[in-house]
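User: Hey, quick favor. My workstation is busy. Could you predict this chain's structure for me?
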Amino acid sequence: MPARKSAERFPEHTVLTDLFSRTISYLRLSLTDRCNLRCIYCRPDGGEQEKLGHADMLTYEELLRVVRAAVSLGMNKLRLTGGEPLVRKGIMDFARQLGEIKGLRDIRITTNGVLLEQYAEGLRAAGINKINISLDTLKPERFAQITGADCFQQVWRGIEQARAAGFSPVKLNMVVMRGVNDDELADFACLSRDTNLHVRFIEFMPIGSRSRWNRDTYLCSDQIKQRISHLGKLIPVPRSETDGPASMFRVGSDAKGKLGFISPISHHFCDRCNRLRLTSEGRLRACLLHDAETDLRAVLRQDGCTDEEIRETLLAVVRSKPQGHRMEERLREQEGGCHGRMSRIGG
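Assistant: No problem, here it is.
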């Protein structure tokens, strides 16, 4: 009876909307807070961060329950993040099980690329549709300085393997930091012009109580565009239904790839935000730049937890989703950024 009641209440073609008429169709899962790199914006003081215990993270079985519940509410797009999702044992079996969920039309992954040479073909075969690779520099020596690991060539081989496996487009995410990598903006832009890679410039966000973020390291998207203006006119690319928050362009009419700008601080996109996040410790977060979280792990681990209770928790978080963040105002008033840890929230 409960299963029949749930099916009646949440029909197959449910559309999930929040209080501001935004369709919520996208769930981002942080599978782990562990990572095989030590990037300066995740570990700004260079020290070790306390890791979650295995019991503190949701099991794959629990994650699958959450995803199925989300899909029954009308969510049809999923992204796997971390930490580094590919370091979690059993990721390939999990990906294959996700690919079998009816109604889940779009499964994506964000990775640092270190293990991608090994996993690209398997991810594609498992049903992963699209791939984003975090890459903040094209210089091997600087890569080691930013990430704490001398493995740029390994990551680049992973990028090539992803392309060979059939991922198209392959997207590269560059977090722009003044005085760190902003002298490479033109090189990345040219990469999107000369190859079919898609490059996205992401504004450095003030996330984490020990974040390296400050006004001196922050470069807004308008400044980034000015820095690359000598390359030629940026030609806007029309948005499609499945596009994310990036404003997309081509560097010239004959560009092979696309160039995107993700501007959560200077030109926030809250009016079209369609996502929820589930952190690696099982907390639902309705907004990346807002600290409010709901403990879904506690709900899942109650004796006799039903699918209906999972759905109701998801719905409650959707109803609590703020109309927008106040990050720019908070920074002006020196209130600071978000206090969550990016490795747990998910990139």
